[in-house]
Specification:
Helices cover 58% and strands 4% of the residues. It is mainly α. It has a domain at 30-56 and 130-287 and 337-500. The chain has a 3-stranded antiparallel β-sheet with strand order 3-4-5. Helix 2 packs antiparallel against helix 6, helix 6 crosses helix 18 and helix 10 (215-228) packs across helix 13. The longest helix is centred in the N-terminal third of the chain and has 27 residues, at 127-153. It starts with 12 loop residues before the first helix and ends in an 8-residue tail after the last helix.
């Protein structure tokens, strides 16, 4: 992310306003290349855990059975088509002629599948091909998490710690190695969040400098549009980030222009912000370009009753009708599933979703187990749940300038699902809010191990010890997140909680 600006805290009234709410007066991190060393090291570690054996298992894992084939259909036809009965076997044998002539009914926007399709275009319709782009976005998410946290906390150490927690997390590793839509969604949300924080900092600069273009705000809108075009749940992040943006705008104007605060804020901040949803909608509709250019996609020829209509109106009517059906599907999905997980338990990793499990004798023992299960690192997840409570206190009682956006991002990814307790949902959806959990854990971990020391850019033995423990558990659980065949006893040794099985 962009370098955090250097403020003179003695003369910057807005920086003083924000620092007032912080637990500690966190010093500015060292500038230049030093601020990249830790995040890049965490990113390299993430790549080492996500790229090797990416084509294993040589199977369509969990919902890859939908997205890998949908992505290939987008490449061939511009929209999703039905597949023949033995499509999986044909595809895994290298035969990509798997499509029927009729359209397929899909329930997610196209962009995430276009991401997967890019890998298939470059490397072929193979397990490696449909996973590689998701893996790259997962790896880049580590870098972005570290740099965002660094900017939020003004600490190289805290930023690097957050990056390491994501790099070493089993859920993030497994999700980065599987061609689902949730990792691209998480990536775009993180990018939007980073732009939001940059915009906040640049807006504070505007109190001391001339008016400057708000390019970071434009970037936030673009990434929110891309996220929404991947999964609808990004809408909650768009609303949350918009509220944060306007709240910070109001604080900034209150300190910069004491007179007529509300009217100036409404005219110069709120009014332009009203246009943002339309830009997001425009990006979303653009992602359906293949559907618009087709003649045989699902609902493409649906026409409203009541006589002829212009072509563009018929197209939009068909898309709106299609979205109505998609909405009904998402809100009424209650079919039973062995790995259905109540959203209340997601932050504690109570019921992870097993993506793949085989017992073929591939480990050299009489009884083997090979699994892909996005199982979060217990230290990070269970400790992170505590950290989120602490961060929530900082945010709502002290308006801590780092805690407030972190807890807001977490809640935007988790709370909306609590309205759908009866819906069939899975724990791996939490990948979208996990980076915020890692940010919270890194901040609280640093403050605990350093006993709230003012110097925020140092390591100590306690902090290194905790990260080492996280790394040891990451290595211990890695085989079951990356489909490495184990003797059954060794696999069972990793099933700490009965609900993990």
């Amino acid at each position: 992310m962009t370098q955090a600006p250097d403020f003179d805290e003695a003369t910057d009234p807005i920086e003083t306003q924000y620092a007032r709410y912080d637990l500690d007066r966190l010093g500015m991190p060292q500038n230049g290349w030093r601020g990249w060393l830790g995040p890049l090291a965490a990113t390299a570690l993430a790549a080492a855990l996500r790229l090797p054996r990416l084509g294993t298992p040589h199977q369509l894992v969990f919902d890859e059975t939908y997205y890998a084939k949908d992505a290939l259909s987008l490449l061939k036809f511009g929209y999703e088509r039905k597949v023949v009965k033995n499509a999986n076997d044909l595809l895994l044998s290298g035969n990509s002629n798997i499509f029927d002539s009729g359209p397929a009914y899909i329930v997610h926007p196209p962009l995430g599948k276009w991401v997967i399709a890019l890998g298939e275009q470059l490397f072929g319709a193979t397990p490696f091909g449909w996973r590689i782009m998701v893996a790259i976005l997962g790896i880049l998410s580590v870098l972005i998490t570290a740099r965002i946290t660094r900017r939020l906390t003004r600490s190289n150490v805290i930023g690097t710690t957050a990056g390491l927690l994501v790099a070493l997390d089993g859920l993030h590793i497994a999700m980065s190695r599987t061609a689902l839509l949730d990792t691209p969604l998480s990536f775009f949300v993180l990018c939007a969040f980073g732009c939001l924080i940059i915009d906040r900092d640049r807006n504070k600069e505007r109190a001391l400098t001339a008016h400057s273009p708000r390019l970071a705000r434009v970037g936030m809108v673009i990434f929110l549009g891309l996220a929404t075009a991947t999964k609808w749940s990004a809408v909650y992040f768009a609303a949350t980030f918009g509220v944060l943006m306007l709240m910070w705008d109001f604080d900034n104007r209150r300190l910069r222009q004491p007179q007529r605060i509300v009217t100036t804020w409404l005219r110069k901040d709120v009014l332009p912000a009203i246009t943002m949803p339309f830009w997001i909608l425009g990006i979303y509709l653009t992602s359906w370009v293949g559907w618009f250019h087709s003649t045989g996609a699902w609902s493409r020829n649906w026409i409203m009753s009541g006589g002829p209509h212009p072509k563009w109106m018929s197209s939009l009517a068909g898309l709106l009708h299609y979205h109505h059906d998609m909405y009904k599907f998402h809100t009424h999905l209650t079919s039973p599933h062995n790995y259905k997980a109540n959203p209340l338990g997601w932050p504690l990793m109570i019921r992870p979703t097993s993506f793949f499990y085989e017992t073929k004798p591939t480990c050299g023992a009489a009884r083997c187990a090979q699994e892909v299960i996005p199982l979060g690192n217990p230290i990070t997840w269970w400790g992170g749940a505590i950290a989120l409570i602490v961060i929530g206190y900082f945010a709502f009682n002290r308006r801590h300038s780092a805690a407030t956006p972190i807890i807001a991002g977490f809640l935007a990814g988790w709370v909306p699902w609590l309205w759908y307790i009866s819906r069939t949902t899975f724990t791996f959806y939490s990948i979208v809010f996990f980076p915020f959990t890692a940010m919270a854990a890194a901040l609280v971990l640093y403050q605990v191990t350093h006993r709230r020391a003012l110097n925020s850019d140092t390591w100590n033995k306690k902090l290194i010890g905790v990260i080492s423990a996280v790394a040891i558990l990451a290595i211990f659980f890695y085989p079951i997140t990356a489909a490495i065949s184990l003797p059954w006893d060794m696999w069972n040794l990793r099933m700490w909680v009965p609900s993990w099985v």
